[in-house]
Design goal:
- The protein has a domain at 37-236.
- Helix content is 55%, strand content 1%.
- It is built from eleven helices and two strands.
- The chain has a two-stranded antiparallel sheet.
- The N and C termini lie far apart (121 Å).
- Mean pLDDT is 90; it is low at 1-10.
- Residues 1-30 are annotated as: Disordered.
Length: 330
């Protein structure tokens, strides 16, 4: 058939490719998703912190360095009675006050953990060094753990409650210290509970040199006075200070009286206050944690606060939060 007579066929039209329609999100949709993801991560981190202090992990994750150190201090404290000299006992008493009252009660607890006062830099270094020499952990570890205790007091996540899942006074008193925690757990604890402290040069210095400060006093004490000075000035002194602090964690959440209604089981216990330079007025403290004074009634003696008053009078401590709280119940 001639081409001219061939039926005309229409050439196929090229198909038009339409670009896929972009999904239009609301302006703040991505921000909301990111915020939700951030909240989920924060919640997961919190649960990890709480779980890292759970007693169910104890016998599977023992911190052998802590267990060996505390055992050695107790053995040394018993052995000290076979090496008694009055000079060694006097040094032990003096160091007990310096490391427990000045170091732990004033430095780690009221100053660092609760910001009950401010200190001039030399005084800050001195009180934190005294706390380090107590052997109760680095300043950051102590402060972060204590803030967690207040946040979750006698609830799941409290590091050393005699209630909650432990229901055991011995857990609150000593066993919780033997639980090994990963470096990631520790970092999360710092980020959550001491974010304004964790990068401070002075605290980082003590964090990095903590082990040295555990060994150095023993070397010095032995060089000065031999075994009596080592056993009394280090082992006995540390052991008695340990239990003085530990009774605050255990006994004052079990026995005593209450001046204030709080959401936890904190109580005031006179004999713990005697052993711990005033820290045994624990219900007062939980009701008013940032107050520099632990004793709120005339008969609640607080020797650590007497030192704070002296530091305030000399200008070494300032911005001291020491106003007597609203009257406690009779």
């Amino acid at each position: 058939m001639p081409a001219a007579l061939a039926p005309k066929t229409s050439s196929p039209r090229p198909s038009v490719q339409h670009a896929p329609q972009a999904v239009v999100r609301p302006k703040n949709a991505d921000a909301k998703l990111q915020a939700a993801a951030k909240r989920e991560r924060a919640e997961a981190d919190r649960e990890r912190i709480y779980d890292s202090f759970n007693s169910k992990h104890l016998w599977r994750r023992i911190s052998w360095p802590v267990l060996i150190w505390i055992t050695a201090m107790h053995v040394g404290a018993v052995a000290a009675f076979f090496f008694i000299t009055w000079q060694a006992v006097a040094v032990a008493v003096g160091l007990h006050w310096l490391t427990l009252s000045i170091g732990i009660c004033l430095g780690y607890h009221r100053f660092l953990s609760h910001k009950s006062m401010k200190l001039r830099t030399p005084a800050e270094f001195f009180v934190l060094l005294c706390g380090v020499l107590s052997g109760e952990g680095s300043p950051l570890t102590w402060a972060a753990t204590h803030r967690l205790h207040h946040h979750r007091s006698d609830q799941p996540g409290d590091p050393h409650s005699p209630h909650t899942d432990h229901d055991d006074g011995w857990w609150a008193h000593i066993y919780w210290l033997f639980l090994d925690r990963s470096s990631r757990d520790t970092q999360l604890l710092y980020e959550k509970y001491t974010p304004e402290l964790k990068d401070r040069p002075m605290l980082q210095f003590f964090e990095k040199t903590y082990g040295l400060w555990m060994v150095l006093p023993g070397v010095v004490l032995y060089a000065v006075g031999g075994m009596p000075m080592l056993l009394w000035g280090l082992c006995a002194r540390m052991t008695y200070a340990y239990h003085s602090t530990w009774f605050v964690n255990s006994a004052t959440h079990l026995w005593g009286y209450r001046n204030y209604e709080t959401r936890d089981e904190s109580k005031n216990l006179w004999w713990v206050a005697v052993l711990s330079y005033g820290e045994g007025w624990h219900n007062n403290h939980h009701a008013h944690p940032s107050n520099a004074r632990a004793g709120h009634k005339w008969y609640e003696l607080d020797p650590t606060f007497w030192v704070i008053k002296a530091l305030k009078a000399t200008g070494i401590a300032y911005d001291v939060k020491d106003k007597v709280p609203a009257p406690a119940k009779a």
